[in-house]
Design a protein that fits this description.
elongated, six-stranded antiparallel beta sheet, seven-stranded antiparallel beta sheet, 4 helices
Length: 246
């Protein structure tokens, strides 16, 4: 009996040591991945990296990880024109089936899903804010975006009719959607009326409707869905064969 108790104690101690070593190894790996992502993606801050699944050392021996979660507070994405970027906030990605090379210089996730957001002030930069003629004696421009409720964006349009600026901005409820996997499109559900003057729909939509391309997201993930939120548009991202490093 004494020998059995000793063997049990040894087993418990060794098991505890294995868990400690495993957790130390995963913490080290998380730091290494975070540093590499900060460097390769030119991030201003170090991202949050969490490697899930136990034991970690067994996963490493098999050459793949079950799940890696990444959080980036701010990310400067491209807009397709090569001239300006758009700031993506609170980008969270859940990577599944992460395989890496023998020297750990590259890693690829089989699937990735996540969320992010773009503030209304950031999205407003792409709208036509300067005053533009939309009809006989009518000029207008977008001056603000906000939550319109029920997944809609409220577009505030300032208009001048026959030389007189309207006392209040005209509110336009708009739908928002993802097109082509990399573009957020804002489309007015119904066109506004400015002083009862008849105007061509195409001219008015030059003001009310606009779109913003978002490309160059980490690892090649793409936009999936988008919905208006309280302080900006909430985005769902998705990808396959997503490169985390290399």
């Amino acid at each position: 009996m004494r020998a059995l108790r000793i063997l049990l104690i040894i087993a418990v101690v060794l098991g505890g040591i294995f868990v400690i070593v495993d957790r130390l190894a995963v913490n080290f790996a998380e730091g290494e991945v975070a540093d590499r992502l900060k460097s390769t993606e030119n991030l201003s801050t170090t991202p949050d990296v969490s490697i899930n699944g136990f034991p970690f050392l067994t996963q490493i021996a098999g050459g793949s990880l079950d799940e890696v979660r990444i959080g980036i507070q701010e990310y400067e994405a491209g807009t397709g024109d090569g001239k300006q970027n758009i700031r993506i906030e609170d980008l969270r990605a859940d990577m599944k089936g992460v395989e890496f090379s023998g020297d750990f210089s590259s890693a690829t996730a089989a699937d990735a899903t996540g969320t992010a957001s773009v503030t209304y002030d950031e999205l407003l930069k792409t709208a036509k804010s300067e005053s533009t003629q939309v009809g006989p004696g009518v000029t207008a421009g977008v001056i603000g975006l906000s939550d319109g409720g029920n997944g809609k964006i409220k577009v505030a349009v300032e208009a001048t009719v026959l030389g007189t600026k309207l006392p209040e901005p005209v509110s336009v409820l708009s739908s928002v959607a993802v097109v082509d996997g990399d573009t957020v499109r804002v489309h007015a559900d119904a066109l506004p009326a400015f002083g009862g003057i008849e105007m061509a729909e195409a001219r008015v939509r030059e003001i009310t409707d606009f779109e913003q391309k978002i490309d160059g997201l980490p690892g090649g993930i793409k936009l999936d869905k988008v919905e208006a939120g309280k302080s900006g548009v909430d985005i769902t991202v998705r990808g396959s064969d997503v490169r985390l490093a290399g």
